[in-house]
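Worked example 3 (structure in, sequence out).
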């Protein structure tokens, strides 16, 4: 029998009431809202700046990607290769080292045979004086003036030979012009001596032709006109 106050939460036998469903749904909604808020706070952090501030990553990117000031010196790789300027030659040309006109440099002929040294000095318009030693051989041991010395034409160079003067044969100078006879005497290794002047023909000589003497010995000649 009904009293007019039927309880809504009293389910009928075999049928569940709707009140527990409503309560469970409300609790689930509140729980989801709380979890969502908590997750948002954790992700954002307690000190998250306002949306109007620039993000830290963007600021960092702007700082690191900003171009270097234009006044900064370029890196070595960016600098163009510098070509060293060509410096003018300061060495005097070889031609300028030659002696002036009328002068010649004594050549280095030490170690050569004395006859070749004599010819070389003559070609350079230099005189020579052979000074023989007491050793062995015909090689030149030294020169005076020394090799490399600048001297004038006609200067006599002393040629020091290791060994003694070799033998040589006196030429026949009969009827030679006096100047030609003197040149022949010198060529054979002797020294000419003039008895009666230097003009005319050779009339006599001493030693006689074909006699053996040594280098640097004298050969006397007498020159004159026709008899």
């Amino acid at each position: 029998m009904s009293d007019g106050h039927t309880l809504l939460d009293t389910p009928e036998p075999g049928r569940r009431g709707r009140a527990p469903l409503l309560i469970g749904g409300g609790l689930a909604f509140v729980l989801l809202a709380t979890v969502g808020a908590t997750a948002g706070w954790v992700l954002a952090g307690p000190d998250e700046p306002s949306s109007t501030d620039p993000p830290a990553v963007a600021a960092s990117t702007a700082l690191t990607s900003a171009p270097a000031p234009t006044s900064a010196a370029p890196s070595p790789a960016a600098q163009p290769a510098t070509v060293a300027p060509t410096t003018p030659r300061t060495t005097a040309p070889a031609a300028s080292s030659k002696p002036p006109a009328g002068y010649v440099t004594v050549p280095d002929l030490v170690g050569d045979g004395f006859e070749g040294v004599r010819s070389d000095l003559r070609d350079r318009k230099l005189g020579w004086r052979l000074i023989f030693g007491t050793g062995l051989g015909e090689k030149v041991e030294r020169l005076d003036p020394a090799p490399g010395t600048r001297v004038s034409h006609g200067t006599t160079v002393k040629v020091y030979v290791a060994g003694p003067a070799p033998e040589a044969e006196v030429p026949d100078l009969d009827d030679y012009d006096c100047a030609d006879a003197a040149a022949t005497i010198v060529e054979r290794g002797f020294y000419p001596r003039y008895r009666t002047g230097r003009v005319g023909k050779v009339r006599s000589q001493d030693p006689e032709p074909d006699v053996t003497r040594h280098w640097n010995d004298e050969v006397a000649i007498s020159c004159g006109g026709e008899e």
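Notes: The radius of gyration is 63 Å. Residues 1-11, 37-67 have pLDDT under 50 and may be disordered.
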